[in-house]
Specification:
Blueprint lengths: L3 H13 L5 H10 L1 H9 L10 H11 L3 H14 L3 H11 L6 H4 L2 H14 L4 H9 L2 H6 L13 H8 L6 E2 L2 E2 L3 H10 L3 E4 L13 E4 L9 E3 L2 E3 L3 H9 L2 H15 L17 H13 L4 H9 L2 H4 L9 H12 L11 H8 L22 H15 L5 H13 L2 E3 H11 L7 H11 L4 E3 L5 H13 L8
Antiparallel strand pairs: 1-2, 3-4, 5-6, 7-8
Helix pairs in contact: 1-2, 5-18, 5-19, 6-8, 8-9, 9-13, 11-12, 14-15, 15-16, 18-19, 18-20, 20-24, 21-24, 22-24
Length: about 475
């Protein structure tokens, strides 16, 4: 079995990215856990993904359609050297939800995702302000329809309920209806400028527009403070609330550590690990609301290191981690958006969440239909024994000796996948299938098929559904 340093590194790379090959895990383990955490936390020090060839495959016409943009993002998640940056991009997309079913402008959603990449590790206050001026977000929540003589409360309400504070904590509400009204009034005049025509060079990005003539210029009372507030003032007030620290801390814990109840239950449901949440809340304020600092505390904590396989994989995590293991989705290719469609079939339509609330996570990712889709997809991939990832596993066994026991084959495959552990009943069933006392020749022509079949069995288990 792999040593503990490699197992811990596998855990980190599953959570802070989309997994890693065993060779990469060995390199990172040699470098050290703390050093790897720091490298992940500063993605700008790593080379960005070269997208020139991919964009030539797509072309501006294809990028006007949702599936092509989903394929573009899936390719980034699988191949970007900045793994934490892409993982955080998915994290923030799951909170600051915008759906193409309404805005019908996936290029504007891509622009929002780029903001998550550049600002997702910085100040939460700065990120909130960026979302408050994001054309895709403002259009999705109808703020372009909010005028000083006819205020639309959609953006103001969701900013408080789903994007920053949550409805309540410790059994108490975090804000009132009057706070929602004041928040919406402060954002009047924050709107979207008309986009230029798409021809001849494709669709242009919409731009944020502040119309001061359509803004309510009068005192407003918000969360106990009174003044002639604009949107920036509202964001500043929200960022310093204890409820906001709790909201961010619980989201980070739910995404990176262990599955929490769904957000609507947080007012009356205490955190799964109150001490972990307290530490993250303290770092939120100590660091000036910096997400990077909170993640540094999280990744180096015992509660993170001890939380292996305690989260159900999202569809994006399952597909992208499987593709990274296989190692052959490394160059743009025709119909590359097919990989993103697999994520959709499992219930996570990227850039098109079902509602502004986003996707319900944890065990709600899995039902009888999606489980079949998840198992079939992973098993189908592992059957491609000519893929670089499978060949790398075969070479490991070849280098270890001329034969391997049935137990050695099973344990080796579990190790290569990142250290999964099977229930005793499942393990015994697999060994019986192989033949308990069988020695298997690693140089036999059928050996790659045997490795592929073992990997297919493993990814068909309930254990592989967890990360």
């Amino acid at each position: 079995m792999a040593d503990n340093d490699i197992l811990l590194m596998a855990h980190l790379m599953r959570r802070a990215g989309f997994g890693a090959s065993y060779a990469e895990l060995e390199r990172r383990a040699d470098r050290g856990y703390a050093a790897t955490v720091e490298e992940l936390l500063y993605p700008e020090a790593q080379p960005d993904l070269d997208t020139d060839v991919m964009q030539r495959y797509m072309g501006w016409r294809d990028m006007g359609y949702l599936a092509a943009n989903q394929g573009y993002w899936t390719y980034r998640m699988v191949n970007s050297p900045r793994q934490l940056q892409e993982k955080l991009c998915l994290f923030w997309h799951s909170i600051f939800c915008v759906g193409d079913s309404k805005i019908m402008a996936p290029h504007n959603i891509l622009a929002q995702l780029d903001k998550f990449r550049t600002q997702g590790l910085g100040s939460f206050e700065g990120l909130l302000l960026a979302m408050s001026t994001d054309p895709a977000m403002l259009y999705y929540l109808d703020n372009q329809l909010s005028h000083k003589d006819a205020v639309n409360e959609n953006w103001g309400r969701e900013l408080l309920e789903l994007f920053s504070m949550g409805v309540g904590m410790d059994g108490q509400p975090n804000y009132t209806e009057e706070d929602v009204k004041a928040c919406a009034q402060a954002f009047t005049g924050w709107t979207v400028g008309n986009g230029l025509p798409r021809y001849p060079y494709g669709r242009y990005f919409n731009q944020f527009l502040y119309n001061r003539l359509d803004h309510i210029e009068e005192d407003k009372t918000f969360l106990g403070e009174t003044g002639n507030f604009n949107g920036q003032d509202i964001v500043r007030i929200i960022a310093r609330q204890p409820a906001t620290a709790r909201f961010v801390a619980r989201h980070l814990y739910n995404y990176f550590v262990a599955d929490e109840p769904q957000v609507p239950a947080w007012q009356d449901t205490p955190p799964r690990d109150p001490e972990a949440i307290r530490l993250l809340e303290e770092e939120y304020f100590r660091s000036g609301y910096e997400i990077r600092a909170m993640l540094r505390v999280l990744f180096n904590s015992d509660f993170f290191k001890e939380a292996r396989f305690s989260k159900v994989k999202s569809p994006a995590e399952l597909v992208c981690s499987t593709l990274r293991f296989m190692g052959d989705f490394t160059r743009p290719q025709p119909r590359m958006y097919d990989m993103a469609l697999e994520i959709r079939y499992m219930g996570q339509d990227l850039m098109n969440p079902p509602t502004v609330e986003g996707w319900h996570t944890g065990r709600e990712w899995i039902d009888s239909g999606t489980l079949v889709e998840r198992v079939n997809y992973a098993a189908s991939e592992m059957g491609r024994v000519d893929a670089p990832g499978i060949r790398a596993v075969v070479r490991r066994f070849n280098d270890a000796g001329p034969t391997v026991s049935a137990g050695g084959l099973l344990d080796g495959c579990l190790e290569m996948l990142g250290g999964y552990q099977l229930m005793p009943e499942t393990r015994n069933l697999f060994l019986t299938h192989l033949g308990q006392d069988t020695d298997i020749a690693t140089d036999d022509a059928d050996f790659p098929q045997q490795v592929g079949q073992m990997l297919q069995l493993i990814v068909s288990t309930q254990e592989y559904q967890f990360t």
